[in-house]
Design a protein that fits this description.
- With about 750 residues, the protein is α+β, with helices and mostly antiparallel strands.
- Helix content is about 50%, strand content about 10%.
- Helix 15 packs across helix 16 and helix 17 packs parallel to helix 19.
- The longest helix has 19 residues.
- The protein is globular, with a radius of gyration of 27 Å.
Length: about 750
């Protein structure tokens, strides 16, 4: 069935925006036309920011924006703009900060009311259509806001000015900078340890989110120190998360977060970036502790991403999988009743599955108490005792049950997968896949990651224009989780090229370095340099230090932007609304923060080039936030990691050779864990200056052992290399010594 579009969203590229094109609200996309119309008509702006994976966004769409009476008020009194937060994180981050300043809360859907030039003066998140749960009804709010804008304009403008002042100061770090001290790393680590939940793993109380950057920071601290407390935090957290309902026990992969402190009941959407960063955690957890369960979880994350989030034909990772099929369910695709379990399994399999996954007549889901979230409750050993069956037999039965339950689940209508290919999130996934491929020997993951990176570099990078934020939108542009009517598009939507943001540059530069270390193909190293140099040109604040999230020149309030043409913005385009607020992302939320990620990229380049320009800019970036970092605690995990790269000599392990011994040396070099350790494998003929970055070209080819054609491993700390070794055991001892003994600069 085809439904005629009723607003401007029919021309949108975003699946989320196109899902609302049939709504009676006269939506605009973010842009000059919407604000020009608001100023011409002297109307306030209603800004709705959401995402295709957001359950409550779909609820508000159906309850309010598909309600003709509410739509009539919106159309009469407001200019309505809808934004996809995944497509425009720069817009979302600023209005989130503004609404948090107004209401004390943020999240999605974000509902903001703006002056005709885009300054926020009131807002919140989800509003019910009628008064409930202590919240006023949305229609009454709309009418009250419209009346205030007409009758008390001075008060509205004063409020908007105050909010903009707060927003402009929210991430201004002037006067708070300090010299960077390695002590900050330990303070961030200890703040996380103090928040550790010893019973359930993780940090803090419900709702409970994973904190991948902080976990990697703790893993690095443990690998260097062997401190028992850190090992407990790491193993408990990684184990409890993977055995909880926040982890998909059948397909693999993690849901976004848990609503309870035990990791049992999740918000069921699955994001590419959560899974990429947790994949790194489990790979690193395996390296640091030797726990084979962590390696198994890592392989299962790859299995789920391979099946659900990858473009197998062209390369690239999709953005997310929704939580629900429609608004009548809440994770029903992922949850099970006793009857559903028994219908899919034999009696013996069902008994084991019900014990292991705690499947009972009363489950955990409030909307349907018969629905159970699968999570590990009884161990294989406990079930073996209870059933009087050998553990190996119980494991075999459980494995069979899992396969049958997953096969049965695949027969259910599956939640929507947003096939948009975002550059920043793809870069995170590529780095994670390459990490897993190296450590776990996953050659298909290696090939797919490199293919995906090649696609990004071919389609998203331009030597003049720089990076784009999106290289491909979903093939299904009309996902409509909020409506029973499915719109079928007869024409391709008009694609809006979204210029690359800081995250796109920083994460892609890091992915290129990871690809170089995986392949020794120098082209990837050169791409990393080009992208990092462009990042410095477009985003670095030469006056105050640190990186802006959008290109320099596009965030200056009060005048028409004049950014470099390579940034992809039109020089004639005015800065709209809160985009005039300068922002230097420092806090991990939910992806790694842009500034410390950029610093890591620069420091890794410094380790290969000995070009002090990279080190100086990284140091200036760290200093901008050094006075505040301790206060952010575990939300500054990526900053702590950047601190490791800056304060600890970088470690390079170069294995030269093409025989079986070279394979053993390479495996030994990969086994040891340290965040700032890089391993490079060169064939017999590849250890030549023309095949290496500058710093390595000055050392490796000149070593007598290399010149003699011997198979060796060379360990360099800083820019000084130890004598080559050919014994894997000796290499292991040497790496342990270098990692544990690496001192501060």
């Amino acid at each position: 069935m085809t439904t005629e579009a009723k607003n401007a969203l029919a021309e949108a590229s975003s699946s989320y925006l196109r899902s609302a094109m049939h709504q009676p609200v006269r939506w605009y996309q973010w842009g000059e036309e919407a604000f020009a119309t608001a100023q011409r008509d002297n109307k306030p702006v209603l800004l709705d920011i959401g995402a295709v994976w957001c359950h409550w966004c779909h609820v508000m769409d159906r309850e309010s924006y598909e309600n003709p009476a509410i739509a009539e008020v919106v159309n009469r009194e407001f200019i309505a703009i809808k934004v996809d937060r995944d497509e425009r994180p720069d817009i979302d981050s600023r209005y989130q900060a503004a609404v948090s300043a107004i209401s004390g809360q943020g999240g999605w859907p974000l509902t903001a009311f703006l002056t005709s030039d885009g300054r926020p003066f009131f807002g919140g998140t989800y509003f019910p259509p009628d008064e409930r749960w202590g919240r006023p009804g949305f229609q009454r709010i709309l009418e009250s806001i419209a009346a205030a804008y007409r009758e008390r304009r001075d008060e509205v403008m004063e409020s908007a000015g105050q909010v903009m002042n707060v927003l402009s100061q929210a991430e201004q770090f002037a006067g708070r900078s300090a010299d960077f001290s390695p002590a900050i790393i330990e303070k961030i680590s200890q703040s996380a340890v103090r928040m550790f939940d010893a019973q359930n793993g993780g940090f803090g109380t419900a709702p409970k989110f994973p904190h991948p950057a902080t976990m990697d920071l703790l893993l690095d601290r443990y690998a260097r120190s062997g401190e028992a407390t850190l090992k407990t935090v790491i193993e408990t957290t990684l184990d409890k998360m993977a055995r909880g309902g926040v982890y998909d026990q059948l397909a693999g992969g993690f849901h976004r977060y848990s609503v309870d402190e035990r990791w049992v009941v999740p918000h069921f959407e699955k994001m590419s970036y959560d899974n990429s960063e947790l994949l790194k955690n489990y790979v690193h957890g395996y390296q640091a502790t030797g726990n084979m369960f962590f390696a198994q979880v890592a392989r299962d994350i790859v299995r789920w991403m391979d099946e659900w989030l990858t473009d197998r034909e062209r390369g690239g990772f999709f953005a997310s999988q929704d939580a629900d099929i429609n608004l009548e369910d809440d994770g029903d695709y992922f949850t099970w009743t006793v009857e559903e379990t028994r219908a899919a399994l034999t009696e013996e399999e069902s008994k084991v599955a019900e014990l292991h996954y705690d499947i009972g007549e009363v489950g955990e889901m409030h909307h349907n108490q018969r629905k159970n979230v699968l999570h590990e409750r009884a161990s294989i050993e406990d079930i073996a005792v209870r059933m009087g069956t050998p553990p190996d037999r119980v494991q075999t039965i459980l494995d069979s049950a899992k396969k049958k339950m997953y096969a049965a689940r695949l027969q259910r209508p599956a939640p929507y997968v947003d096939k948009t290919v975002y550059v920043s999130w793809n870069a995170l996934c590529i780095s994670a896949y390459l990490d897993a491929a190296r450590v776990l020997g996953l050659e298909p993951a290696r090939r797919f990651a490199l293919r995906s990176l090649d696609r990004i570099l071919a389609e998203a990078w331009d030597n003049e224009k720089g990076l784009r934020h999106v290289i491909a939108y979903s093939e299904d542009h009309v996902a409509q989780p909020s409506s029973a009517v499915r719109v079928e598009s007869q024409e391709s939507p008009k694609s809006r090229a979204v210029p690359g943001l800081l995250d796109d540059y920083a994460f892609t530069a890091l992915a290129c370095l990871d690809a170089y270390e995986t392949t020794a193909v120098l082209t990837y190293f050169y791409f990393a340099q080009k992208i990092a140099d462009a990042m410095l040109e477009r985003f670095f604040d030469a006056t105050s230090g640190g990186f802006l999230d959008a290109p320099v020149g596009t965030t200056a309030p009060g005048h028409v932007a004049q950014p470099p043409s390579a940034a992809g913005f039109s020089p004639e385009s005015p800065v709209l609304g809160a985009l005039g607020a300068r922002r230097k992302p420092f806090q991990d939320s939910p992806t790694p923060a842009g500034n410390p990620a950029a610093a890591i990229a620069l420091l890794r380049l410094f380790g290969y080039t000995n070009d002090s320009r990279y080190q100086v800019k990284a140091e200036e970036t760290l200093e901008v936030f050094a006075g505040l970092a301790e206060q952010y605690g575990m939300f500054a995990g990526t900053y702590g990691i950047a601190g490791i790269y800056f304060s600890t000599p970088h470690i390079k392990v170069v294995v030269v050779g093409s025989d079986a011994l070279a394979e053993r040396l390479y495996a030994e070099a990969l086994a040891a864990f340290a965040l700032n350790k890089a391993v490079l494998r060169l064939g017999d003929s590849e250890a030549a200056p023309q095949n290496l970055p500058p710093a390595l070209a000055e050392t490796i080819p000149n070593l007598p052992a290399v010149q003699e054609g011997r198979t060796v491993a060379v360990v360099c700390s800083g820019f000084a290399c130890r004598p080559p070794v050919s014994d894997p055991e000796e290499l292991r001892r040497l790496l342990q010594e270098v990692i544990a003994g690496a001192g501060s600069r």
